[in-house]
Each structure stands twice: as structure tokens, then as C-alpha cells.
Specification:
The chain is mainly α and 235 residues long. The protein is built from eight helices and two strands. The chain has a two-stranded antiparallel sheet with strand order 1-2. Helix 2 packs across helix 6, helix 5 crosses helix 7 and helix 6 packs antiparallel against helix 7.
């Protein structure tokens, strides 16, 4: 093991311990985070870790922002400040799989790094759109009917939330470009895939989660998977 690899593992362990202490992750979630983070680093290197760190920081900040206001909104049970192991897998599982595939198929590592970025683009967009959209949105609509609906419910979107989600995807795309080169095509792919994944999350929420047919964690995993697949098609 290289010294740099050992340092990364120690940093992941330290981050996990700090997350438990500050109640950002449950102990099980912290362990899951170390495992998924290790897979992401093994296949995606420092860029993969940057995507993960950006998502975690932005997602944690958005979830904690004006928490008391959001607790008054119906349908916020899935937006706990302390993340569970299932939530870690739902948001970072696809990226971890991409990391493992990059190890198995090193010739295709650039593709899997792009898929990793796309999955985090979707996870970040969804988190910012839902957590901050509830706070700053003015009008809320059911995604399928486009009729006014109650904020905080599954499948409900706002223009403000959508724009905040796009901003989150753009930050992930900027992180990708900053570590691999400023090529407009992959940047556009990451933003488009992240935005599409965010909308797919709302679609699944309206069709299945609201009816109790899918859990929030399942929907989150599927939206990141959809974003990765869309990026693969556009690659």
C-alpha cells in the first residue's frame, strides 16, 4: 500500500469518526461511508473523493439549513439530519460500483469516472432541490399533472428547487473539469445527467413513493443509477 493510500484511508476513518461525533452519520452509516469511499477512491482516485466530499458537504449543509422550518412541512420524515447506512448506499452506492468497475476494467476508467460524477451530480441535485426547494420555493407543482400541490410531498417540484438542483450538478461538473480538464462535452453530460436524474427522482416519487410502493432510499439509488446510465449513453 502506498503512503498516499494509507493517508486517504486514515482521512476517511477520521471523517467517519467526526461524522458520528457531530451526529451527521449513524455508526453504521459511517462504516458504510468508509467502505463506499474506499471503493470510490480505489477506482476514481482523488477526483472521486472530491465528488464524494462535495456531495457530503453540500448535502449536509442543505439538510441542516432551516431544519425547524422544514419540520413544520408535511412529508419531511425522509429528511433526517443524521444519515443512515441505507441513505449512504442510496446516494453513493452507484459511484462505488463505478469505482469497482474502474478497477476491473482499467482501460475504461475515464468512462467510469464520468459515470461516478454523473451519479453524484444527480444525488447533489436531488438533495439541494428537495431540501432547499422546500425553503425557497414559491409555487409547488405535481410533476405529472403540473397542478399546484403541497410542498414537501413526493413528486412535487418548484422552479426554485429545480434551479438549485442544476446549481448542485454544475458544482460537481466543475469539480470533474477541475481535475480532468475543461472539456465542454463531459461538463454538459454531467449537468444534463444530474438534472435528468433529479427529475426522475420526482417522477418515481409521484408514481411509486407517494403510494408506498418504493422507499425513499430506493428512489434515491434509482435516480443516481439513471443519471449514470444517461451519462453512459451520451458519452
Amino acid at each position: 500500500m502506498r503512503a498516499s493510500d494509507l493517508i486517504v484511508i486514515l482521512l476517511l476513518l477520521a471523517g467517519a469518526a467526526a461524522s458520528i461525533y457531530w451526529k451527521k452519520l449513524t455508526p453504521a452509516a459511517a462504516i458504510t461511508g468508509v467502505i463506499t469511499g474506499s471503493a470510490i477512491y480505489a477506482g476514481g482516485g482523488y477526483p472521486g473523493l472530491l465528488f464524494l466530499a462535495l456531495f457530503f458537504i453540500l448535502g449536509t449543509a442543505a439538510t441542516s439549513w432551516r431544519k425547524q422550518d422544514k419540520l413544520l412541512v408535511r412529508g419531511t420524515a425522509a429528511h433526517e439530519t443524521t444519515r443512515r447506512a441505507g441513505q449512504v448506499i442510496a446516494n453513493a452506492g452507484v459511484a462505488a460500483i463505478a469505482g469497482l468497475l474502474a478497477i476491473l476494467l482499467p482501460a475504461d476508467k475515464p468512462l467510469f469516472l464520468l459515470l461516478m460524477a454523473a451519479s453524484f451530480s444527480s444525488a447533489t441535485a436531488d438533495t439541494l432541490a428537495s431540501e432547499l426547494g422546500m425553503v425557497y420555493g414559491r409555487r409547488f407543482y405535481h410533476l405529472l399533472t403540473l397542478k399546484p400541490d403541497q410542498r414537501g410531498l413526493d413528486g412535487v417540484v418548484s422552479i426554485e428547487g429545480l434551479l438549485l438542483g442544476i446549481a448542485g450538478s454544475t458544482l460537481i461538473a466543475a469539480a470533474y473539469a477541475g481535475t480532468t480538464g475543461w472539456n465542454i462535452r463531459p461538463i454538459a453530460i454531467i449537468i444534463l445527467a444530474g438534472t435528468a436524474g433529479n427529475l426522475i427522482d420526482s417522477l418515481l416519487g409521484a408514481l411509486f413513493e407517494r403510494k408506498g410502493l418504493l422507499t425513499n432510499d430506493t428512489v434515491n439509488f434509482l435516480n443516481t443509477l439513471a443519471a449514470a446510465l444517461i451519462a453512459a449513453v451520451l458519452y
